[in-house]
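ugh ok fine here u go
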Amino acid sequence: MLFRSKKALLRRKESKRSQEEMALMKETSYNYQKFSELEEQTQKLQGERQKFVTKLASSRDRLARENDELKQKLAVYEAGGNPPADDTSVAKKGKLSRSNSKSSSNSRSNSQAETARSDETARTEATGRALESIKSEDDFEGGGKGEELSDEGLTSAEAEILMEKWGPNELPEKKKSKCELLTEQFMQPMPLMITAAFVIEGLLANYVDMVLLLILNIVNCGLAYYEASKAADAIAALKSSLKPAAQVKRDGKWENIDAKYLVPTDVVALNAGAAVPADCTIIAGHIDVDQAALTGESLPVTMMAGGQPKMGSTVVRGEVSAVVTFTGARSEEHTSELQSP
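structure:
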């Protein structure tokens, strides 16, 4: 029995020793692998260092050669010989600048006056072009054909003149005063019925019921006025925070501006996912427009060159340039024509 226990103990020791040897071999293999990786990295770093040293030496030689050449040119120039081509041009420019400094200072005021006159002439010409480009509303009837439209856009001066003529691109809003809003609450069906009951109770000399109906009517209309006023203020705040933007071409470059500053004949970009800022006519290409808010159509409408997407619709697919035809209240008029059967 004792012999068997000793034999089992020896087996356990041998098994433990073999496990330790396996672990040691694994650790040795892992260390060797790490050492190999470090050695490879060291070789790479040495190669990069050698390349850097070579590049540095070549740069140093190049700088030394350029320094020697500059010294030779400087020595020739100091000796009174012909300076190099570059130095000659520099010297000539210096002489010319010194000789012309006095004359330029005398003519500076004249040049400034001429510049001011030329700027004034340019502004006058731009104003004339803007006045010629202003068209009446009848000129945009039917939208026009895509090939007849220009994508050059307007200048800032032309846009200002057109803004003075047509006004901002905003739909007119009829704002109600607080007094009108309160009066409307008393003209609703329920307050009118309570008022009729109030009169009847007065004719029947039921003064207690008459007073109760009066208090009920005042409380009811007061609460309705508070809710309506609160909703109107919330809508006004939401409109002021959600100002529509438009991508317009002004002075030959594209820029993002507030849509209310659009004017007729402006060139705008209509991109997928953007709202149509004003009534437009497509110059070229095609887009899909969602007009559900205007016509109730459930499917987008495909519009080609010459098509007229309306203000308030949304571009679903495509990207085109278009010319603004109607803005503000005139957009509302033509949208109502679109909605009519």
